[in-house]
């Protein structure tokens, strides 16, 4: 997952907000990320909230 690139200011802001919401933990972001049908990683804030509330594994999609 770390091979992706951020190519716009909007993408950078979204990544920054997501990282902060995850408690500044890329591991939490990676655990919550899922690939959609187009192969794009999607991180739902609800999955990150589960991480923050002590549920260590994201729900499968």
Automatic annotation (TrEMBL):
Domain of life: Bacteria
Protein name: Uncharacterized protein
